[in-house]
Amino acid sequence: MALLPVYEALDRILNSINPLNAELISLHDALGRVTVEDVTSNLTQPPFDASAMDGYAIKYKDASKTLDIVGISQAGKAYPDTIKSGQAVRIFTGAPMVSGADTVVIQENVLRDGDKLTINNCKTRGSNIRAAGGDFKEGQCLVKKNITLDARHIALLAAGNVAEIDVYIRPKVALLATGDELLEVGSEIGPDKIVNSNIPLFKALIAEHGGVAINLGTAKDTEEDVKAKIALVKDVDMFVSIGGVSVGDYDIIQDVLKQSGLKVDFWKVAMQPGKPIVYGDFNGIPYFGMPGNPSSAYVCFANFMLPALNKMQNKAENGFQHSYAQLEHDIKEGGDRMNFMRAIYNENDKGEKFVSSNLSQSSSKLKTLADSNCLLVRDVNAPATKTGDLAKIILIKPGVFCS
Ligand code: AMP
Ligand code: MG
Fold first, then answer.
1. pTM
2. CATH classification at residue 356
C-alpha cells in the first residue's frame, strides 16, 4: 500500500467521525465541555439599578445644598423609602439605588458632619450608577453554541442563573497497550523490561481534551492475549491500541483485530514520525492503531486523534493551533514524508517568534517531547531552509515561552 498523505488521512478520519449526542449537566461540571445550543440568560444583570461606589445617593439638583442623611442602602438590603428634596442616603457598592435619587456622589467628594452632608464635587447627573441590565438581559445569548467552556463562561452562566446546561457527551476511549516488554509505572522493573509510558500519556491526553479514557491494560504480543483484551472493547466511542502496528514479527495487532471485525481504512501515512499508524472501523467504532514509540504516538495524536476527539464533541477548533516562527538554524531539504520535528519556540518582547528544532528527533525519546513546546512542520520534499526563514509550527503548549 502506498503511503497516504497526511492531509488525506485526516480527511478520511474526519469523514468517518460523527458528533456524539448531548447530555444535560450541572454548570459545576461544565469546565471544558462544549455547548450544544446558544445558552441564554435566566435573568437580567444587574437585576436592579445599583451603586457602583461607596458614597451617598442624592437628587442631582440638590448637589449644592446641605442635605439630611436619612438612611442606608447596603448590598442585599435596599433603603425602603423614597427620598425627598434635601435628603441623601448613605449607599455602598452593589447596593440597590435609592428611590427618588438619580446620582451617587463618592464618599471622597463629601463632608459629613453627623447627619448633615455637604458635597464638594458632583459634576454629572446619574454618575456612579450601574444600570439594571447593563451587563446582560434576561433571554440574551450569553454563550454561543459549539464553545468549549472555560472559567469565564462558567462565571457568566452562573451570573445568568443557568444551573444546568446541554453539552456534548465526552467521548469514551478504550486504550490498549501491547508489548511483552511493558510493565506498569511503580512496578519493579526486571531485566529486559521498560515502563509503559504510553498509557499514562494517552490517559492524560484524552482527559486534557475532553474525553474519558478506559484503560484496558497491556496485552502480551500473543494472539490469545490480544483477543482477550479486545473482548473488553464495549460501549466506547473510540478504540486506540498502542504498539505492534509495524512490520516486525511481533507486530500482530492488525491481523488479530481483523479476525475480530476490524476493517482497515488505511495503514501507513507519509509522515515522520508516525508512519505505521493504522486507522479503521472496529465493529462500528473508529479505531486508531498507534505506533509504540512515544513520540510517534504523540505526533499521531496531534495530527489525527485530537481532531477526531474534537469533532465528536463538536468543538469549533480542529486541533492544536498553527503559527509561524523564524528559524534559528538552517534545515536541509526534506524527504518524501511530512516531518513533525520536536522544537522549541520563544517570543521576544516585540512579539516575534523564533523556533529551533535542535533536539534529538529519535522517536523513542520522551524527554525531548516533554522539553519541546511545538512541532516544527516540514512538508513532503520541503526545500532546504535558512536561518531567519519562516517555518510552520504546531503549538502544542501555547503560551509557554522559554526566554
Ligand atoms: P512497537 O510499535 O510495538 O514496535 O514498539 C516500538 C517501540 O515503542 C519499542 O521500543 C517499544 O518498546 C516501545 N513501546 C511500545 N509500547 C510502549 C508503551 N506503551 N510505553 C512505552 N514504550 C512503548
Ligand atoms: Mg511492540
1. 0.91
2. 2.40.340.10
